[in-house]
Description:
Blueprint: E1 2-3, E2 6-7, E3 43-46, E4 52-53, E5 58-59, E6 63-64, E7 69-72, E8 80-88, E9 91-100, E10 106-110, E11 116-117, E12 120-128, E13 134-138, E14 142-146, E15 149-154, E16 160-164, E17 172-179, E18 182-188, E19 194-200, E20 206-207, E21 211-212, E22 225-233, H1 248-259
Amino acid sequence: MIVNGYKMVPKVWVRGRAVATSDGSYIDSARLRxxxxxxxxxxxxxxxxxxxxDIAGVWRPFYTRGVDWYWTTDPVAKPTYMDxxxxxxxxxxxxDVLNFQDQDFLRSAFNGDLDDAAEYTVVMVASFDNPTGxxxxxxxxxxxxxxxxxTVLDTTTAVPRTLSHPAQIDPAIVVLSVRPxxxxxxxxxPDNQVAYASAxxxxxxxxxxxxxxxxxGVTAGGANMKLMEWSLFDYAVQSDGTTGQYNVNQIISLYxxxxxxx
Length: 262
């Protein structure tokens, strides 16, 4: 910057974003950013450059109550950091995402894999590209696949449970609630359409081991998804909820205030 003929480095750089359109498209400055959303949960991982090391492939939490909780991967098979722009109606939204392609994966490193739980809920916000039977998330007890429908597969009985996904899954808010022997899944689209399914699986303690993008223990295959957020709640979210806990409608409403239609 030149001021009065001399070079000067400003104390603060200000960056703004504007859009000029002829079709009425707009950016809503009142919409919350992911870091502004207040959620009472165990852990939240956000796909921002402040939290994801794109060189080492390490994803650290925006917030956690865990001890030494982070995600890691093989540096040659790591998702890449990028921006994703999409529209809901005429509103234009842009978010940081982790882009999974080919063999990319992230594996949890939560307290050295020592933690387990009687129940939990995972919330994923992601754009699922080309849903043709790839693994979005895998645990020792169940797999979550994306194809022409969403599928939850119990790894011990190989019993699948599918639900049709809404027409628009760019992005989708996925709520996976596990309280053995029942696993429940809700998928909400930006136009506030919600699909639901449940499955009965063996009652057993749940290992807090997760892998995104590939099945645990498998080196082949890869997802085609752009992940914006992964959150964990240390209880199983229900349709009605109990005192001090969110119900599923509150969960979807919270995350939709950032990522989806309002």
